[in-house]
Amino acid sequence: MLFAGIALVVWSGWQNLRQRRSAMQEQQNRRVDLIPDSQSAAAWDSSGGSPLKGKPAPGFTLLDLNGKKVSLSDFKGRPLVVNFWGTYCAPCKIEMPWLQEFSLKYAADGFRVVGITYDSEVGRDTIAQTTQRLGVTYPILLSTPKAEKDYLSNTEALPMSFYVDKTGKVIEITAGLGSKDELEAMVKETIAAGGR
Amino acid sequence: MKVTRLSQARRAFVSIAALALAAGATAQLGSAQLSMDIPAKPRATVVYAAEPQSVPAARRAMLELRFQIVPGFHINSHTPKSELLIPTTLNLEPETGVKPGAPVYPAGQLYSFPSVPGEKLDVYAGNFIIRLPVMATPGDHTMDATLKYQACDNASCYPPKSLPIKIVFTAK
Prior knowledge:
Helix content of chain B: 10-25%
Number of helices of chain B: 1
Strand order of the largest sheet of chain A: 6-5-4-7-8
Order of helices and strands of chain B: HEEEEEEEEEEEE
Number of strands of chain B: 12
Radius of gyration of chain B: 19 Å
Number of helices of chain A: 6
Shape of chain B: elongated
Number of strands of chain A: 8
Distance between the termini of chain B: 70 Å
Structural class of chain B: mainly beta
Largest interface: A-B, 57 and 58 residues
Strand order of the largest sheet of chain B: 1-3-9-6
Structural class of chain A: alpha/beta
Oligomer: heterodimer
């Protein structure tokens, strides 16, 4: 009887230890990736550039915050920045007022900016409130999986900007926040590219 | 093909970053450089340093939850300076025999993106500890919880993530 009791205590202790070890092991194995998978990076060429550079900008037709359809073809013949951003993205919110400023400063040159919201799931109201606070008046569109696949190759890094010349060709791509001067230089080059 | 100065600068940093990572170097917060023109290739993670803890039973006690952020990344603190940013939060699932209090978050540290030094953010980087008050009945306990956070590197940001964790402790 005594032996059975001791055995029961030892067995239950062992089971408890196993369960706790299992929980700890599960915990140790649990990691959250900030960057989704290696396939994202593989979609970019080994020189560090995007496969889109030098190629025609992928066409899109997306909804703006009023539910109106906006297409890339609406900007045909104009130098354009296609800027992917997110409401959670601090550097995007630093950069967007600069884009707004340049969209006005170089409007006479035909220059335009279009923002594509990566986290459309937060809803139009949140997006509209955010852009309003930032003073952005250029078109803000809601992204789709296809637009993200075509432009971002499944990367999740924001901001991402695609500089499209008058002929519709992507002449440069930038990821992340640079300086305002660098951004303006890129805008000027986009305006100058593609001939008169 | 014409390559802009911005692109060259960013591409140069890619190589530097790759070398630094290959050598096992750790980037310190505040020493960030201009961003790269491709997303960071190294797999980056936020990790919960799970470790069993013991606390006095039937009395208010404090658990320490330790997290590690991969070098080169930061996440918003619990009190980011802008309401437009997503704060780090710990959400707890109910556990029989455990009465948790409100998590106590550490203070963040000021951070600026290198190209805009005047814009200050409040972030966690490196290691940080969230303290969790609990009152628990005697015995072993495992609480399920989720850390919600949003991470950035020195130029780019990544979507909000949820990190499920198990808080394992014994009340004696």
